Amino acid sequence: MPKSLEPSHDALVRELQVVRKNGLLRLRDVPLPTLGASVEAVGLPADPALLPASITRLLERVLARLDGDLATAVAYSLGLVEGTRHWPGRSRRRRAAEVYGMHPEGFRRRREHDLLDHIAETILKLRREAGAPRPRSAVPAPAETNEVRQRARTPDFPGSAYRQRETGDRAEHMEQALRRLREARKVRTYGDFPNE
């Protein structure tokens, strides 16, 4: 993953699900590129030999920012409580569900994803605080956007207010615009395909 991009929230949640399922002792067995990039972004060692320990330290930093039942449930769910690291995923889920007084299956369906969402948000916040670059979508669009806006104000640009006033008929205008687009980009539309 390029260093210049902030990972997506969904990618972090997917990798956190893998961590929750496999446990902290088996981090070496699964690829976790998004968590690995996050570890590096917050200043922890990202060397492959140290990555499992660094991911654990990152999750402990996240846990330090939580409190109450949320912190307890996260700690049990991920195996961050002393003595739970070697527990199977079901046992950790059952213990986390007990924190909320829920059945493990109900916890899995209702609460677990919310916990992982919150952990992912906290990791992204830690990355931002550490000065990791923002995603490219947060950077303003290049001058191309301004050029398109300028062209939209001219009479020859499809969809401009000038063209609508000239033609008067919106359907005719849309056909003209589609024809121009097809010619310019060689775009095939539904009507261009032969009937079979």
Explain this structure.
- The chain contains 10 helices and no strands.
- By secondary structure, it is mostly helical.
- The protein has 2 domains: 9-138, no CATH class; 143-191, no CATH class.
- The chain starts with 8 loop residues before the first helix and ends in an 11-residue tail after the last helix.
What is this structure, in a nutshell?
This protein has helices spanning 9-22, 33-41, 51-64, 68-78, 89-99, 104-110, 112-129, 143-152, 161-167, 170-185. By secondary structure, it is mostly helical.
Describe the SSE topology:
Elements: H1 9-22, H2 33-41, H3 51-64, H4 68-78, H5 89-99, H6 104-110, H7 112-129, H8 143-152, H9 161-167, H10 170-185
Helix pairs in contact: 1-7, 2-3, 3-7, 4-5, 4-7, 5-6
Index terms:
10 helices; elongated; single chain; mainly alpha; 196 residues; 2 domains
Secondary-structure element sequence? Answer: HHHHHHHHHH
Report the principal-axis shape.
Answer: elongated
Arithmetic mean of pLDDT = 76
Q: How many separate structural domains?
A: 2
How many individual helices? 10
Biggest pleated sheet: none
- Alpha-carbon Rg, integer: 26 Å
- SS content category: mainly alpha
Q: How far is the first residue's CA from the last residue's CA? A: 44 Å
List how many beta strands DSSP finds.
0
Residues in helices, as a percent range: 55-70%
pLDDT < 50 stretches: 134-145
In terms of DSSP E residues, the strand content is under 5%
